[in-house]
Amino acid sequence: MRTIDEKASPNRQEAAALPDPPAPAYTPLVRHLPWAWAAALCLLYATVAVRRHLLLRTTGYDLGIFEQAVRAYAELRAPVVPLRGEGFNLLGDHFHPLLAVLAPLYRLATSPLTLLVAQSALLALAAVPLVRWALRAVGRRGAHAVAAGYGLSWGIASAAAFDFHEVALAVPLLAFSLEALGHRRWRAAVAWAAPLLLVKEDLGLTLAAIGAYVAWKGPRPLGVTTAAAGLLGSLLQIKVLLPALAPTGGYVHGGNLAATRESLLSALAHAPLDLLRPETKATMLVLVFAPSALLALRSPLALIALPTLGWRLASENGFHWGTAFHYSAVLMPVVFAGLLDVLGRETNRRTVRAALATVLAVTAVLVPSFPLAQIAQRATWRTTGHVEAARALLARIPDGATVAASNRLAPQLTSRCTVVLFPTFPVAGRLYEPGREDLPPPTADWIVHDAEAPEAWPYPKGHWPYPLEQQLAELRAAREKHGYAVVAVRDGITLLHRTPVPRPAATGPARPRPASGRP
């Protein structure tokens, strides 16, 4: 037991007086339990993700974008992404240089499936520190409950089944950092959390929250330094690095946090209500902590979720308020760390068992509403004629070609072609403006367009980024005005190829030919 500094604050005295938790004497089988759960969850996530891709349910926005970036890293180039616009450096969209660690894997297996499997492994890896902590805090049976609760939680499921995103790198880093916080290994917690600065620009705020927790519960200098590094890192990225790399010269996503009130006083007065309106925001808040049976709210570790929840609630982008997409993945390790922190201090074993039973019950209720349930759906295992037709037509496009493709066909080509979205966009630095009439003419060698709108979570059934009528009008214009010829049409999928423009014949007097031998 460590000695207590007589001048230390009460909370530091309490932290210093507590001995490190002893490592339980488990059999080799139980010691490998965290990794067994991680392997099983990785297999589950990868199965759902790969099947979605094979069924054309992944998208150019976002899987295609991230594959183009990782492909550029693998080829030792800057992450310029044609899907985001001509010459668009993806580091000007979000600051995620840590993506480069996936480049060696992509070099070995040049496929979008590499990114999907890597994401599955990263999300599953976060179970290792959580289950390891659970073995100490709630025993072997409780560890199974925690593993199932985290592994099947809706926040992880939503990320695992929606393309690929950089936040997958943050999930295991946070989980290992939180485990270290729970065991008062302050330096290890900071070391695990520090790379968050290289994953996404808002995660510097999460690093700052971890630093604040360390300053509160542990060594103050380390905590204050970590908090300052997190705040300054995010500020530098948002104010300097991102604008310098973005083609628009500003923070691309700054508009999501634009003030909508007429005055500062009005904004401050309405801020508490605006954070919970519309009701989708309140529903999201409840569901974030629901996998822990709301017990995580009793732990101070829950405060580490505040930066992510804060920017999402303040955002003007409605996608940030709900439970779809990948935005809640980084919150799930925080929620389950909070649960373990609370249960680890509970002395009544009956209360612990009841809490874990509730966690499992909530998990069972929520699973059918989120995408991991796709693994039990018949449609997931059936390859339709439409999918076969798409594969046949895409195979006719040669490697190395430039292609303008529909959103769900784009990631089928990004590993071997230079791909942009059809109809051509972004235009003038803007993502899309539905109904705009002044789209520039296509310049790709090939166009492949799918008139069918597959129903694929989390998007509603429909066409994107422009209505089908406008897309078909652009397809007609490509044939009638821009020199494209129809190669094949099958099951609503149209493949066009640009007809070579004949060079004009040379005019003027013929140049005299030299006599034999050197001139």
UniProtKB/TrEMBL annotation:
Sequence ranges of Low complexity compositional bias: 504-519
Superkingdom in the source lineage: Bacteria
Residues passing through the membrane, by range: 32-50, 113-135, 284-304, 324-343, 355-373
InterPro entries: STSV1_Orf64 (IPR018650)
Signal peptide: none
Pfam families: DUF2079
Keyword Membrane annotated: yes
Keywords of the record: Membrane, Transmembrane, Transmembrane helix
Renumbered residue ranges of the record's region Disordered: 1-20, 498-519
Name under which the protein is recorded: DUF2079 domain-containing protein
Source organism per UniProt: Streptomyces roseoviridis
